[in-house]
């Protein structure tokens, strides 16, 4: 049986009360904290860095999943590892040396993964599958929370699932962007096991009600 994981994106949390927000969402049932790093260069938005990761680290005991939307990739990796990140993913287009960036993440004791924009081919995985612990499929174009799920990515999730099964490796398949209570089951049916949700969770007053409803739809 598949273990499903809910990974709230703190991009939509109240940044003035971030410690409390992450504690609340973990008590509400979050399995992972998704941490969106944007640099106003690779993506047209600017968010949070290692200092904020370090600040929330003592507030939660679940893994922190750092989604790097930055270019270049390598020089920020050691800082996030030191700040308590458990998983670090990056966009292959943003790295000059993909294998090196993956190895750097692993050398710093974190799990490593690649992120695929809606139009980025999965062929980047071909020669690095042995260094991958997570595949993150973007179901929106990166840069902002609150966008709509792009249904064409369901086929790509299914393709990523096939590659993971063929590899025989233990690789998380995460989907990110526009995930809501009413489309989470479709993403799971395509093969995803880890679900990022920002606005769907932090946009509601009762985080537990949203997470419970998501799990109920995954159990159907
Ligand atoms: C988009 C980010 C996502 C985003 C998800 O660039 O990577 O993690 O915050 O937010 P929602 O769930 O609101 O689409
Ligand atoms: Zn993200």
Automatic annotation (TrEMBL):
Q: How is the cofactor bound?
A: Binds 1 divalent metal cation per subunit.
- Could you name the active-site residues? 36, 176
Q: Mention one GO molecular function.
A: D-ribulose-phosphate 3-epimerase activity
* Residues annotated as binding substrate: 9, 67, 143-146, 176-178, 198-199
Q: What keywords appear on the UniProt entry?
A: Calvin cycle, Carbohydrate metabolism, Cobalt, Isomerase, Manganese, Metal-binding, Zinc
User: Which catalysed reactions does the entry list for this protein?
Assistant: D-ribulose 5-phosphate = D-xylulose 5-phosphate
Instruction: Indicate the segments annotated as coiled coil, or none if absent.
Output: none
Q: In which pathway does it act?
A: Carbohydrate degradation
* Record-level GO cellular component terms: cytoplasm
* Positions annotated to bind a divalent metal cation: 34, 36, 67, 176
Its EC number is: 5.1.3.1
Q: Which cofactor does it need?
A: a divalent metal cation; Fe(2+); Zn(2+); Mn(2+)
The record's top EC class is: isomerase
Isomerase: is it a keyword of this entry?
Answer: yes
Keyword Metal-binding listed: yes
* A Gene Ontology BP annotation from the UniProt entry: pentose-phosphate shunt
Task: Please give the family membership noted in the entry.
Answer: Belongs to the ribulose-phosphate 3-epimerase family.
Role description: Catalyzes the reversible epimerization of D-ribulose 5-phosphate to D-xylulose 5-phosphate.
PANTHER family, A to Z: RIBULOSE-5-PHOSPHATE-3-EPIMERASE
Q: What's this protein's name?
A: Ribulose-phosphate 3-epimerase
Native species of this protein?
Duganella sacchari
């Amino acid at each position: 049986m598949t273990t499903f994981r809910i990974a709230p994106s703190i991009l939509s949390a109240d940044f003035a009360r971030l410690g409390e927000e992450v504690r609340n969402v973990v008590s509400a049932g979050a399995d992972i904290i998704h941490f969106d790093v944007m640099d106003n260069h690779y993506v047209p938005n600017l968010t949070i860095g290692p200092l904020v990761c370090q600040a929330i680290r003592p507030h939660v005991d679940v893994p922190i999943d750092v989604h790097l939307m930055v270019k270049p990739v390598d020089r920020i990796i050691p800082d996030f590892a030191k700040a308590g990140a458990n998983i670090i993913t990056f966009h292959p287009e943003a790295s000059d040396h993909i294998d090196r960036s993956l190895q750097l993440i692993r050398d710093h004791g974190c799990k490593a993964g690649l992120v695929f924009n809606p139009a980025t081919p999965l062929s980047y995985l071909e020669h690095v599958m042995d260094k991958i612990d997570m595949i993150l499929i973007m179901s929106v174009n990166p840069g902002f929370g609150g966008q709509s799920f792009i249904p064409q990515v369901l086929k790509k999730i299914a393709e990523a699932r096939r590659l993971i099964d063929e590899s025989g490796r233990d690789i998380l398949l995460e989907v990110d962007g526009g995930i809501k209570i009413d489309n989470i089951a479709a993403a799971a049916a395509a093969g995803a096991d880890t679900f990022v949700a920002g606005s769907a969770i932090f946009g509601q007053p009762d985080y537990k009600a949203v997470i419970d409803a998501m799990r109920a739809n995954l159990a159907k």
